[in-house]
Amino acid sequence: MSKTKRLGKSFDEWYAEQCAADPDFDTDVKVLVEELRLQAQLYEARKVAGLTQDQVAERMQVNRSFVSRLENHPENMKLATLNKYARAVGMKVEIELHA
């Protein structure tokens, strides 16, 4: 992790304090990171396909604002919706579980 100081503490020290104060903090951060990763993947998949949000919306038979919400706030997206988006951009969804 970073050695950057934040208010006199390194990030690692600050992060350890947050984890000690809230047992769910580390898990919550990891969930947020995965949500950001999904958000980036959705956007990148559309760009690689050379499609606009309007084009994806047309393929999904939804409006453009729905596609925008998916790309910007994918945190509670249903698997069926993710699959529909993937098909619209010419991709497929693969899910892996890790220990």
UniProtKB/TrEMBL annotation:
GO MF term (any one): DNA binding
UniProt cross-references to SMART domains, sorted A to Z: HTH_XRE (SM00530)
InterPro entries, per database record: Cro/C1-type_HTH, Lambda_DNA-bd_dom_sf
Superkingdom to which the source organism belongs: Bacteria
Domain HTH cro/C1-type: 42-97
Organism per entry: Pontiella sulfatireligans
The name this protein goes by in its record: Antitoxin HigA1
Gene3D superfamilies (UniProt xref): lambda repressor-like DNA-binding domains (1.10.260.40)
